[in-house]
């Protein structure tokens, strides 16, 4: 991944806790490091095929001119997110904002904050076995697509499968989706739970019937083990109803623990089931 660098960009704004800062404003210094791909620009030598750092600078200047917040932490987070939304070619951004004239009653070189944002690659399992199953799945995907913190949503075909674990229930409609998201694993999980709640999801029987089930299978190459979330999904390698639709849309994704692609895991499970 290549990088575009902007350093020492001076902008004027009214961010600060104290009334003098709010009324008189001050100079801020912005640095940012943008991870992106140069491939399109190298082959075409065309500005439209890269992230235009001139427009990034103007965007930052405009943000400072039109917004005012008490805390620099708020400024940095909001500005970084806005840049990610506005410039699709930005894969990852490190943004640093310095406040050289902060009202501190002593000598100092500088004070500031730094934030990092990135588009994370995520694989999801989706399923339903109650009511209008296809509508539940389709509505959930539309919720994802409409959220600004999610992009590049790719959804597999839906397949009908027998229930897993608790078998005294209707057949499932299962699928998979890959997305890119700015959300942390915890925030993404909370978002998925809100979508499930809109579909009146109940958690009464383990592996029991449900209107909607949204599971995080993979999040970049992260390994997460908390009370609420385990990634990679603990049983995904044993579930054909997970691997088959994921194989359709992302066969090259790598399981960070098994160090095998979805393609490999699919055919390994297929061979095991046919043995």
UniProtKB/TrEMBL annotation:
Domain 7,8-dihydro-6-hydroxymethylpterin-pyrophosphokinase: 206-217
EC number: 4.1.2.25, 2.7.6.3
Highest taxon of source: Bacteria
Pfam families: FolB, HPPK
Kinase among keywords: yes
Record PROSITE patterns: HPPK (PS00794)
Keyword Lyase belongs to the record: yes
Catalytic activity: 6-hydroxymethyl-7,8-dihydropterin + ATP = (7,8-dihydropterin-6-yl)methyl diphosphate + AMP + H(+); 7,8-dihydroneopterin = 6-hydroxymethyl-7,8-dihydropterin + glycolaldehyde
Signal peptide start and end residues: none
Pathway: Cofactor biosynthesis; tetrahydrofolate biosynthesis; 2-amino-4-hydroxy-6-hydroxymethyl-7,8-dihydropteridine diphosphate from 7,8-dihydroneopterin triphosphate: step 3/4; Cofactor biosynthesis; tetrahydrofolate biosynthesis; 2-amino-4-hydroxy-6-hydroxymethyl-7,8-dihydropteridine diphosphate from 7,8-dihydroneopterin triphosphate: step 4/4
MF (Gene Ontology): 2-amino-4-hydroxy-6-hydroxymethyldihydropteridine diphosphokinase activity
Keywords noted in UniProt: ATP-binding, Folate biosynthesis, Kinase, Lyase, Nucleotide-binding, Transferase
Family membership: In the N-terminal section; belongs to the DHNA family.
Role of this protein: Catalyzes the conversion of 7,8-dihydroneopterin to 6-hydroxymethyl-7,8-dihydropterin.
Protein name: Bifunctional folate synthesis protein
Lineage of the organism: Bacteria, Bacillati, Bacillota, Clostridia, Lachnospirales
Gene that this sequence comes from: folK
């Amino acid at each position: 991944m290549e990088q575009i660098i902007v350093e020492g960009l001076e902008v004027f704004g009214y961010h600060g806790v104290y009334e003098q800062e709010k009324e008189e404003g001050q100079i801020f210094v912005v640095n940012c490091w943008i991870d992106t791909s140069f491939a399109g620009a190298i082959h075409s030598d065309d500005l439209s095929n890269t992230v235009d750092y001139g427009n990034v600078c103007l965007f930052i200047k405009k943000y400072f001119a039109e917004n005012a917040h008490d805390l620099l932490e708020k400024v940095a987070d909001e500005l970084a997110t806005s840049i990610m939304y506005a410039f699709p070619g930005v894969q990852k951004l490190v943004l640093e904002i310095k406040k050289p004239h902060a009202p501190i009653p002593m000598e100092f070189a500088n004070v500031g904050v730094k934030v990092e944002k990135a588009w994370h690659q995520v694989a999801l399992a989706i399923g339903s076995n109650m009511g209008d199953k296809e509508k539940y799945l389709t509505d959930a995907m539309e919720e994802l697509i409409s959220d600004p913190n999610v992009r590049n949503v790719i959804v597999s075909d839906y397949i009908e499968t027998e229930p897993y674990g608790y078998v005294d229930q209707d057949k499932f409609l299962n699928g998979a989706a890959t997305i890119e998201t700015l959300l942390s694993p915890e925030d993404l999980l909370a978002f998925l739970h809100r979508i499930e709640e809109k579909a009146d999801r109940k958690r009464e029987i383990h592996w029991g019937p449900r209107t909607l089930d949204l599971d995080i299978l993979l999040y970049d190459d992260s390994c997460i083990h908390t009370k609420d979330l385990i990634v990679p999904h603990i049983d995904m390698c044993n579930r054909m109803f997970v691997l088959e639709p994921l194989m359709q849309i992302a066969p090259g994704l790598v399981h960070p623990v098994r160090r095998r692609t979805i393609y490999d895991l699919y055919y390994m499970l297929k061979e095991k089931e046919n043995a």
